[in-house]
């Protein structure tokens, strides 16, 4: 008999027991044990029941001199100890969130079982947010930046229209009353009230429209629409002017810039990066301190990372949230006590990166707008930028600090990441139909508005996140690289979710709701598996990326 593995986990106990039991078919106890081992799966309760039954049977069989006890006792006693140790430490509960069409048969492979980790490319060169000095957000400055954004998107819309062979002659807002014209601008709403079908305004730029506004009507007759303050739109219809107002009777509203279908440019070369196996990405909710001041135990998460060795692990903030920490708390007398928590966590990641299983894994840290250690509004420079307390911390070469929002290229897939919630603030102040398609329509607007935060800057209503208006363009997706996969956390839904828009994938990896900030015994992760592209007849011609067909998303919850 070979020695058992050093660590027995829920993920391997069933197969390891079956290995030990192979070749013992003539004993009823062996057959019963084999059935029980086969039924374990990821079920903690069944595992504990098996352990109790197993030790009882070994004791009885050994007393009787049965081969069951003689053959298995030395090895199974070690299994039992490892089972008990594993269960005491906590338990992972996993459930599937999404499976693409190409993934319906078979199971994804965790990183440690793949042979392609050295060929997998993880590139962070798409990021260009570096440390900067924040400036004041005067009304004049906000107005100027809004004007620049309107002008920029108007030019993008004109280019799109020409490429699509559509003749849109843009007329300045409020210029003349006539039929069948097109105006471009920003959705706006007077006063600090909720937007509705009857109070929607369009604001033009200063260069052409002198910042004028006009009412937009006929929204109630549009069966599919998603409008919110800050949104860039083109409105086609008739302009009407009377003694009371200037308004547009909209016949059509073009919200943002439609995205082209994502393409796979070099299928053969890309396929070699995968070697016929999937890529494994793990995203970790990395709240280190609860609202009660309790430290969160990440040992279960670190063990999972060592056991599975993903190609890429993303730790998503807030790590220590300024919103939930009371500096008067008896647990934290000084700011340095809190900064030391960052230091310790990063040191643990450094140690993790040196483990034999994970020495080729890439680790990524992305902060949150609420993070205590980051003094910047959105867009946030990386957590180790020179203005933070972590600037001089020496870290592993495998550790990447991303700005927020940030971007990665994993093989051919471009990933856009923010630790903030881009969905909920839009959903709270919008006109959207049909209501059951609201989430998909919001994700569509993130894509067509080219930003995780298309409703910023807010000129009236208070904003959830502070932004640096002079860096507004850095909140937009890279102009030459629209992401294929969008990762964020949202409390729009209690559970993680996936939405597919124009062959692009929007994934909320976990909730950032306030309720989830008080539990120090629960850790959330999401596992994302990307299968290799299918190559037909050794073809290397440009083809569809089809990421949504190749994607698997699983959620994991560790309960101690």
From TrEMBL:
Residues 166-239 form the DNA polymerase alpha subunit B OB domain. GO terms for cellular component: alpha DNA polymerase:primase complex. Residues 300-491 form the DNA polymerase alpha/delta/epsilon subunit B domain. Its main location: nucleus. Pfam families: DNA_pol_E_B, OB_DPOA2. GO terms for molecular function: DNA binding. Keywords: DNA replication, Nucleus. GO terms for biological process: DNA replication initiation. It comes from the Eukaryota. It is found in: Nucleus. Belongs to the DNA polymerase alpha subunit B family. PANTHER family: DNA POLYMERASE 2 ALPHA 70 KDA SUBUNIT, DNA POLYMERASE ALPHA SUBUNIT B. This is DNA polymerase alpha subunit B.
């Amino acid at each position: 008999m070979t020695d058992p593995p050093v660590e027995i986990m829920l993920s391997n106990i069933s197969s390891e027991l079956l290995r030990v039991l192979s070749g013992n078919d003539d004993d009823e106890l062996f057959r019963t044990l084999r059935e029980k081992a086969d039924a374990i799966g990821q079920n903690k309760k069944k595992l504990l029941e098996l352990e109790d039954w197993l030790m009882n049977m070994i004791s009885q069989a050994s007393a009787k001199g049965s081969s069951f006890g003689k053959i298995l006792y030395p090895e199974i006693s070690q299994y039992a100890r490892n089972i008990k140790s594993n269960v005491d430490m906590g338990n992972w509960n996993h459930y599937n969130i999404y499976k693409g069409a190409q993934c319906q048969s078979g199971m994804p492979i965790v990183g440690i079982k793949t042979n392609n980790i050295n060929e997998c490319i993880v590139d962070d060169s798409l990021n260009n947010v570096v440390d900067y000095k924040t400036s004041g957000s005067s009304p004049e400055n906000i107005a100027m930046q809004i004007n620049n954004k309107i002008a920029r998107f108007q030019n993008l819309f004109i280019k799109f229209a020409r490429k699509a062979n559509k003749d849109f002659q843009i007329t300045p807002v409020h210029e003349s009353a006539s039929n069948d014209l097109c105006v471009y601008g920003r959705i706006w709403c007077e006063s600090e009230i909720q937007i509705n079908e009857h109070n929607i305004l369009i604001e033009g730029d200063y260069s052409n429209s002198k910042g004028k506004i006009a009412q937009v009507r006929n929204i109630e007759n549009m069966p599919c629409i998603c409008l919110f303050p800050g949104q860039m739109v083109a409105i086609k219809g008739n302009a009407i002017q009377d003694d009371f107002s200037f308004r547009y009777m909209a016949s059509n509203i073009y919200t943002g810039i439609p995205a082209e279908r994502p393409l796979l440019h070099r299928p053969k070369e890309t396929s070699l990066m995968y070697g016929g196996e999937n890529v494994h990405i793990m995203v970790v909710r990395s709240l280190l301190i609860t609202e009660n001041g309790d430290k969160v135990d990440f040992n279960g998460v670190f063990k999972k990372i060592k056991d599975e060795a993903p190609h890429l692990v993303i730790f998503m903030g807030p790590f220590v949230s300024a919103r939930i920490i009371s500096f008067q708390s008896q647990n934290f007398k000084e700011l340095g006590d809190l900064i030391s928590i960052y230091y310790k966590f990063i040191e643990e990641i450094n140690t993790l990166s040196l483990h034999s299983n994970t020495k080729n894994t890439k680790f990524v840290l992305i902060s949150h707008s609420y993070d205590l250690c980051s003094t910047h509004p959105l867009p946030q420079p990386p957590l180790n930028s020179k203005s933070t307390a972590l600037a001089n911390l020496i870290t592993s070469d495998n550790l990447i600090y991303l700005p927020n929002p940030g971007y990665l290229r994993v093989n051919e897939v471009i990933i856009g990441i923010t630790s903030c919630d881009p969905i909920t603030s839009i959903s709270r102040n919008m006109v959207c139909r049909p209501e059951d398609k609201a989430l998909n329509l919001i994700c569509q607007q993130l894509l067509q508005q080219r930003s995780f935060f298309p409703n910023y800057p807010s000129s009236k209503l208070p904003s959830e996140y502070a932004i640096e208006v002079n860096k507004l363009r850095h909140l937009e997706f890279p102009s030459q690289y629209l992401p294929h996969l969008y990762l964020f956390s949202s409390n729009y839904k209690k559970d993680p979710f996936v939405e597919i828009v124009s062959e692009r994938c929007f994934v909320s990896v976990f909730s950032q709701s306030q309720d989830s900030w008080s539990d120090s015994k629960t850790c959330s992760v999401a596992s994302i598996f990307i299968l290799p592209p299918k190559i037909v007849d050794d073809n290397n011609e440009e083809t569809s990326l089809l990421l949504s067909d190749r994607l698997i998303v699983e959620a994991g919850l560790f309960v101690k």
